[in-house]
Protein 1
Amino acid sequence: MKSPSYFGIALASLTLMSTSAMAQSSVTLYGMMDLGVQYLTHTNANRDSTVGLQSGNTYPSNWGLIGREDLGGGYSAIFRLENGVNLANGAQQSPTSFFNRNAYVGIDSPFGTLTLGRQYKIMFDMTVYYDPMFMAQYSLLSAGLIPQTSGVANAVKYKSPTVAGFSGEAAYSFGQQQPGHMAAGTYMALGLDYQIRSFSTRVVYEQTRGSFATPVDTSSQIDKRFSAAAKLRVGTATLFAGFLNVNGDLHLSPVGNMYWGGAFYQATPTIGLSASVEHYQTRQGLGNPNWFILEGTYNLSKRTSLYAFAGYLDVNGGQHFTLNYLDSTSPGNLNQTGVILGIRHQF
């Protein structure tokens, strides 16, 4: 089963303690190395297939540093730096940003956590555990749940503590911070999560303004997204369902509604199986594509796993859709079949 510890301090394997405050501060090195072989059909207009190494199939390959200093009274100063890497060729995931995944500093307190810098969007934070594929390369990201990127720069984010099963997040990004174009690239989002025993549900609203690059200014255009999702644990199985409405005139994704459902089953302590079905009903004549995805995971240890994906995209009259959300070469209007076999290791 995919371990939620990937997003937490539990990934730590190396902790460097301050000599002057051994118990009060720490810096932890962590990472995820994920690489596999992918076979993908219809990757160009000639309907050719490709076979090759693909990095970050279940989780983005990355390494990072996370730090905490105890300030007393339940308060701590925190920071996080995280860089995505392409294991297939050793390159940075982003050519323009070294710490492209996370780069923030903040305060953790009994009243919640406030952070500033580059951070995950709330739609990512509060959907990753409501997606049977856990935001893999074949997942809700393929359908465009989160357009462009899961991170946002120049952001302020607040995460509340959990009270009576409820927790929430709020975020605002100052966007491009362009003089005379202060709305360009701005982002705001709100999310609420509720958990009771084996059931949990969440709602998220977010909006993004267009960018500014001389002479094009789309900052008056807006992308609006509302999503609701739920999951229910039944024994060693978990059932998932969700809904996304996309609206506005920015068109980061087609205007319309997305629906998904799926399940995860822990067959044995070492074997996990996932299945997901996604449907996008557009309102702009861009079709109604469907995604069908299966995944199997075999845990060699607590940190190392083998995995296999099988996916099929039925474009159903759609355009600009792909099975692998990182596939930028596909014409986007052809059905696709994909298979991935790989290994991941966390430290």
Note: The first strand starts at residue 14 and ends at 17.
Protein 2
Amino acid sequence: MAIPTVESTTSNLTANGIAASVSKTANTLLKELPIRNGTAKFMPDTITNGASKPISNGTPVTLPELDASLLTTTLTPNPRSVPAPGSPEEASQKVCTDHMIQARWTATSGWNAPSLQPYGPLSLMPTASVLHYATECFEGMKLYRGYDGKLRLFRPQLNCNRMLVSTNRIALPAFPPAELLKLIVKLCATDGPKWLPKDRPGSFLYIRPTMIASDSALGVQRPKEALLFVIMACFPPMDGSATPGGMKLLASRDDMIRAWPGGFGYAKVGANYGPSLVAQGEARAQGFDQILWLFGDHCSVTEAGASNFFVVWKTKEGKTQLVTAPLGERIILDGVTRRSVLELSRTRLEKRCGELAPIEVVERKFDMFEIEEAVREGRMIESFAAGTAFFIAPVGLINFRGKELKIPMSEGDAGAYTKVIKNWLKNIMWGKEQHEWGYVIEESE
């Protein structure tokens, strides 16, 4: 299989290693490999199956791919109780649904048949690769109970595609994203009707697909065994609407770096999150909700906590813009909510929408000094963070080098653009607007 030659901010060793991973671990090829720079998408809209074949003793060998049609099902004999809305159990983020998906992979036998089984502990050796070398990646999705009575996912193909990008970055096995989606759908159809009853429209479950290296060899090497699993958890609402005055962000200092060019900030791997928890804890101890992650001497704005970050401002020439950081340097995550905000804004807000003036949607590097200047000159209109967990969270204040920059919120609890974008997305997610982004789940009776 020929691997395209492309320019990359990643070293040739990393780029070649990712390409080799694609060709060796499964018969899967990204239409756009996650080693491209510039305007390339790191999370492709579609992924096609290739015909890569590992070589064993000079003879081509095709290992089994992940195949949802082979799923075995074992239902739990001990079903759990569903937490009441607003209860401590729901708020704990520890309560999962009755079942989970598991699938095992080895370098010698490929993917085993996946299983839907009772939720429960995993079995790992103390020497498992994931426990020592952070060979782990995951996705964050939600299952929604719509106001029309239907269960929906939101653009789940993008999450499955992005997970393949992440597995390739950290030497975990490849898989056909469409097969992962089928497994997620099966879990949703099995547990969704009970855990999101029709008398609770507007509720959701959090879905966590995860892959870990379960190889018990302690040496620093490419894992030869892996485990894919999918669980669903009860989560409280986390969209920032309960924060009076909007989210308060503490801009990171020079000694805090979340991601860097040529690293793995674009992949949803555990190593992106663990090191950020110390700074996050300090920010909360000082009364802030999240860290606003900056990069470099110019204090380039990247992400807010684990969410993408947006500002709406007027340029000095009087043009209204929606601005967010670009993907080119591979520092930030290609968020599903980020994509959706940009696409809706380009199709619905680049011309006048009701009382809202048209905006120009811009993906470019920008820094805290620009934000500081826009606030000082009265050009800042609003700001928000966007991600699966926190959804659309209005920002009301940013602390930068000891200065408190107050961000306007024209609608009281949010800015006008923030509010309309949030409502559009909610309508799609909960079935008030029939849209191609809403993936309806056929429920098990």
Note: The chain has a mean pLDDT of 88.
Protein 3
Amino acid sequence: MALSSPGTGSSGTSAASGSTGPSGPSGPSGQSGQSGTSGSSGTSGTSARPTRGLLPLLLAGNTAMYALYIGVPGMLLALQIEEIDPAGKVANFGLVSGISAIFATVFNPVAGALSDRSGRRNPWILAGGLLALPVMLLLGGVHTILLVTIAWCLGQAVMNVYQAALTSVVPDRVPVAARGKASAAVGLGLPIGSTIGALVGAAFSEHYRTGYLVFGAIVAATAVVFTVFAREERMPAKAPLPVKEQITAFGSALKDHDFRWAFIGRALLVLGYFAVAGFQLYILKDHTVLPAGLTAEGAVAILAPLTAVAMVVSTVLGGWLSDRFDRRKLFVGASAALAAVALLIPAVSTSWTAMLAFAVVNGLGFGCYMAVDTALVTMVLPKAEDAARDMGVLNVANAGPQIVAPFVASLVVSLSGGYTALFLVAAVLSVLGALAVRPIRSVR
């Protein structure tokens, strides 16, 4: 899974998490640029009337996706790896997360291109969603790090089939005038899905094999509901963009001064965020002093809703204030700096109170950053006619750091012997991300 920018087709869902996503959190990892390009003309999105009830279906579809992306790598996968090799859990988790993120980044554009060429989204959403169930069953039944890696790569494959098609629905079916609402529906899937993922993961922490099945069932059921009620018309098939042209487009966009600095700032902030987010369970187990009777899994179930609420509040408030004062750089820089401050809290204190404060402050900073920075990026795109393509380029700044983050985090923890250094490194990256917006000239 990759954190990405809203409203840009396959190249952009809304912000992620905390795969926490360790990919997803790692969240999980690339987005397809193909479908985003296909929607750039707006022919389908502007002329077609959206299916009645499409926005709640988009919310449900993205919520299910983020629930799996947060609950599986952020909780169940970490527990499974710890059970297999307790002494090497940090290095092994970094290895599994990194390899699967690379796999997802490569596979997502392929899945997007296949759905583009078929002219359909629903069959791919349904296929990816239904296949999540047997793949989660497989993942829960393996007992070596190698097989866990292979099984989770398969999980990333089927989820990226689902994700690539789902994120193309907005530009395909939603008129331009309604895309703000659609992006909000997509965006709300992250905090809601993160909360559900953390709660379900915590509930099945002692029976993670059953937990895998529950997440697979959630995605499968949601895929069925979405494809039954969100009817679609076959669209003209689209030829995939050749790899050489994609590479040329990437280099062309980064030649623009302002866009390049926006790209660098996003990459630094995302790297710092996911370096910590991916190892949250291990941090709670090995770094934080939890109250008597509170397990690390239970702590995740408390922290996730706090972060989610803070993200929702700061996303709405930050976007509104940046519009009101017409100051994007100020809010982007301030929110990145706030994220850095949040990371210092658990670095100087191992208390449970410090982690609670970190969850709230980090959610406020990251939510505001993603909302306002996305708006800033749309204002520094090199060419209006290449907007969808260039937003796809920006998503490299989302997906790439998520690939690197597990390796960086495991290396820092292994060399330093603890998590304090990881928080400090992540804070420095956030500060650099805040400073990166200063050279931007065309936006206040």
Note: Residues 4-48 have pLDDT under 50 and may be disordered.
Protein 4
Amino acid sequence: MRTFSKILTLIGSIILIGCVGYLMVGWWDEKRWAWLAIGIIVIAVNLGVVFVRLKPTPKPRDWTVDEVRAVIEPIHGELTQIRTLRRADKGLTLAKAAELVAQARISS
């Protein structure tokens, strides 16, 4: 399902870039500078969307309870521990990080 939404987002962004680019030619000829500036902003934002969607997401690593405990031990507060664990592993989902922190806190 995520792949389908990613493809639709990419197609929509590319179509929007093309349409706004086409309109910008007319705005340039008619000297509509405000609309031209808005068009440039829209294209820049959509290029950012395309870049973010095409950027590969890292795969989460397999954590043991001892490794999780070593990362979160000096940190107080469950939410801060979850955030710290997700910073250590960029591919880790929020639900999985919360589960790992809960297991590490129970077994300590």
Note: The mean pLDDT is 90.
